[in-house]
Amino acid sequence: MSAVLEVSDLRKTFGGITAVDGVSFEVRDGEILGIIGPNGSGKSTLFNCVLGQLSPSNGEVRVDGKVTTGMRPCDLNRLGVSRTFQLLQVFPQLSVRDNLILAGQEHQGSMYSRLIGRADAGLGEAADQMIAFFRLSHLAGEQAGSLSYGQQKLLDAAMAFMAGPRLVLLDEPAGGVNLTMLGLLRERLQAYHAERKATFVVIEHQMEFVMALCTRVLVLAEGRLIAEGTPQDIRRNPAVIEAYLGHGMPNA
Amino acid sequence: MNRAGAIAIGIAAVVAIAAPFFLKPFGIFLISMWAVLTIAAIGLNLTLGYAGQISMAQGAFVGIGAYTLALLTQAGVPYPLAFVAAGLLCFAIGWLLGYPALRVQHHYLAFVTLAFTTLVFLFLRNEEWLTNGIYGVNGIMRPTFFGWSTGKAIDFYFFCVGSLTVLSLATWWMLRSPWGRAFVALRENPIRALSLGLDTRRYTLMAFAIGSSLGGLSGALFASLVQFIEPASFGLQRSFDLLLMVIVGGSGYFMGPFVGALISVLLPEWMRITEGYYLIVYAALIMAMMAFCPYGVLGMVERALKAAAVRRDPPTPALQSEAAGS
Fold first, then answer.
1. What are the structural domains of chain A?
2. Coil, helix or strand at residue B70
3. Do B188 and A102 touch (CB under 8 A)?
4. Whether A102 and B200 lie within 8 Å, measured CB to CB
5. Which of A82, A152, A236, B16 has a CA 20 to 30 Å removed from the CA of A57?
6. With a threshold of 0.80, does the pTM exceed it?
7. Size of interface A-B (CB pairs under 8 A)
8. Domain with B166 in it: what CATH number?
9. What is the ipTM of this complex?
10. Residues 122-151 of A with CB under 8 A from B
């Protein structure tokens, strides 16, 4: 299987603090890779470096073999890499439908054709399909800001999928979502993955969610990779248990 | 647009066409000024209200547009060309002024643009070889189109209202295109916008450039309306006034600048019945308005309409429990 994303020897320092310390891994075509680790282990920094939101201090990122280190997030997105955010990031004053059209519009035509012609033609229909897929049809015309937290999480995910990305990075999709909504979110992500053969990378705290969704898991602690394996391996790995629970609590 | 809005605009259009026939020359001058400044406020509403980039420089762009038209027409350039040049020059300068906005936001950006306004004012005052300094520029022409001379106040008023109509329709059209959506995205969440493939850098510069070019076109009309311009007309006061129009009318509402300019241009004149106190009363009214409707007149109207709709048609209990459960 070919690698969609390759990260080699990625480092990011903030002043004297090393947030990500020489991390290398690859994401294979069609897999759902989970990245777990305690708070402050460097997960989000790693994501932000991969996505061009931060520029790494050292190392290289490749998407489909192409070096993307230092590329702006918007250019990376148009290469087919999209993301969701840990904290809610929808456009509250736009309708649910407009949020999704916006998520697709920059992938069609040039900037000037978007002003002169109707470059968003067809996006309305695609948006409606995505809305239906995420079970939000009854809310299509509502302002995104008026949705419940869980519904906004679904919308956030839908936006990441709108342009038919090759690779989706999900930053704590389950964070703050109640159990019913969580089940729906997981089921929809799996359905999307099965249907479109997209590749996911998921950062998550919620262990059950990761174990149920991911095919392979990486564990990050203090900026380094400390373990890799199937969800079952990871659950039994003593190094992981120690990283999560600290020293002196081997039986916890 | 809903039916009530369409009817309101229809009535406003009839009033705008009929008004000059019932007014004395000073009244016609005032409503012409309203039309002219509305154009500049539409530009600022685009930059600030839609794209979320605060600018205290709109008064300076009105000045640049006014001087461009005045100096070019006096150098013998045909009016239409000078008019377009005023817009283009402000587009280019507005684009450059957008660069600081890529680095700083909010009150920092306000100060950058404030400094720019001061810079333009000093340039207009000190570069006498070009601008004639504090003596200003006199005898600015009004155009003639295919035999229709706009020399008389009422004709020039119709030229201003015609320009306002064309420019506001063009803005309306742009705001309904994907660009309008992109500008709102820029205001609401630039980081998310960037991650969805929006080239926020280019959209920010465009928001500044287009907003500024509307300021320039407004300035070109301003020059022909007053026929005498001086640097003091385009200082900080003008920028603050335009900002007031956008905020009071309702920032981010398409019709906001129309209402805001009406209040800013006409209210002080109506307050003249209080004679020497008219500016004090005007200032007090603005303060009260901002305290009780910070979203501007149109924001207040929208809230009132929404509240009335909820009273008429309360949400069903089923919907409420669904919202609570999710």
1. 3-95+160-245 (3.40.50.300)
2. helix
3. no
4. no
5. A82
6. yes
7. 90
8. 1.10.3470
9. 0.89
10. 148, 150-151
